[in-house]
Amino acid sequence: MAQSSLSSETSEQCDDTIQFVKRFADEFQWQDLSEDVVMDIGCGDKLNCCIALLSQFPNVRAIIAVDKESTVFQMAQVRHRRIQYCVGDILERDSLKSYEGKMNKVISTNTFHHIMDKEMAFRNVYRLLKPGGEAGFFFCVNSYLHTFLTDLSEIPKYGAILKDTYATTLYPSQQGEQYYKELLEKIGFKNVRVFEEERRRSYPSDKCFKVFFLEDLKINLKLSPEAAETFMAEVLELYEKKFGRKEGKLGHVCVQLNLWGVKPMEI
Q1: Side by side, which strands form the sheet with 251-262?
Q2: In sequence order, which residues have a C-beta less than 8 Å from that of residue 238 and are 6 or more positions away?
Q3: pLDDT (tens digit, 0 to 9) for every residue of the chain, 267 residues total?
Q4: Per-residue b/e over 19-58, b at no fewer than 16 CB within 10 Å?
Q5: Beta strand 251-262 with 62-67: parallel, antiparallel or unpaired?
Q6: CA-CA distances (angstroms) from residue 157 to 150, 160, 231, 235, 251?
Q7: DSSP 8-state code for residue 143
Q8: What is the rounded distance in angstroms from the CA atom of residue 69 to the CA atom of residue 173?
Q9: SS3 79
Q10: How far is the C-alpha of 164 from the C-alpha of 167, rounded, in Å?
Q11: Would you call 228 exposed, middle or buried from its count of C-beta atoms within 10 A (0-12, 13-18, 19+)?
């Protein structure tokens, strides 16, 4: 059951990535990428973005797949002559300095919500682009689960259990469409386009929800099996009371941001 829940989440992320790449291409009217080098920030071992790019633009000149974890490339499920692998951290400018000013496009999906200093990351993306280069970002800016955890952690009996299991400042409430549009414009991006969309995921069963909740937060490392069972029974009841069910199933809703910008041509 845990594997089924994980597979469902992975499949949804893959579908989201395919859709975002298509939107990016449509927004900027991509036709032929045979002369373009595209960098994928936070590629992960599934290489969803790289696969989506190759599927839609098989003649792309090259894709630079970047992840800060070297083990990602050891586990990578795809090998392709047009994909080059690079261990690098978008927050560490020096780790990607050799690519600065050389990328036609930079794209990142399901990664930037994990980055605390987003302004620094966006600035480093800007540096990577050639003049006229385009950047696209797809990441979560709000989440039912995060809201629920924040509320739950304020209850003393749960606060100790949840301590250090999630980032409390992951989704600042004031950081939405307008915030990110203005941030990219401040950095120097032009033709900035942005919109939010709500995504709902239903869990096949309450057991799947419990597995996702415990494993995602690593709470199971802190509790005995008996304590974890009691904790999850209480959590499930509170979650249902706060968010209800749809067609009898618990669900998770997140708000995803679609964000694009262009580095202006040099004058």
Answers
A1: 83-87, 62-67, 37-41, 103-109, 129-143, 251-262, 190-202
A2: 148, 152
A3: 444 444 555 567 788 999 999 999 999 999 999 999 999 999 999 999 999 999 999 999 999 999 999 999 988 878 899 999 999 999 999 999 999 999 999 999 999 999 999 999 999 999 999 999 999 999 999 988 888 988 999 999 888 888 877 777 778 778 899 999 999 999 999 999 999 999 888 889 998 888 877 766 666 657 788 888 888 899 999 999 999 999 999 998 999 999 999 999 975
A4: ebbebbbeeeebeebeebbbbbbbbbebbbbbbbbbeebe
A5: unpaired
A6: 13, 7, 10, 12, 24
A7: E
A8: 29
A9: coil
A10: 7
A11: middle
Could you give the CA distance from residue 104 to residue 29 in angstroms, rounded to a whole number? 14
Place of tokens 């499920």: 77
Give the tokens for residue 59. 């003649």
**Residue 176, φ and ψ in degrees, nearest 5:** -125, -155
pLDDT score recorded for residue 135: 98
User: With 0-12 CB in 10 A as exposed, 13-18 as middle and 19+ as buried, what is 11?
Assistant: exposed
The token pair that represents 218 in the structure block: 């690593």
* CB 63 within 8 Å of CB 78: no
